[in-house]
# Entry
Amino acid sequence: MQVVNIVEKMAWDKLDTVLNSKENICKCEKCRADMIAYALNKLKPRYVSTERGEVFVRAQYMDVDLSAAILVALTEAVEVVGKNPHHDKE
Ligand SMILES: [Zn+2]
# Structure
């Protein structure tokens, strides 16, 4: 049995939406992971066991406050990491 942080799942799901709304942001795997890490450090995790995960995750997606908080954290993360990618520019 695994335990997952549903905030992390949701952040990955929403990252593309945030990235697509920005231009000139590096979208490589490294930057994406950095953005998720940055956002997750700002957010309170919510852990569920995967047995009840499916139902629970769907319920959380309806949580407007949680969704908004994740979007705010991701937007900030994209701006911060996007300006300072942790790798050399191509
Ligand atoms: Zn990058």
Summary: Helices lie at 6-20, 29-42, 50-61, 64-83. The radius of gyration is 14 Å.
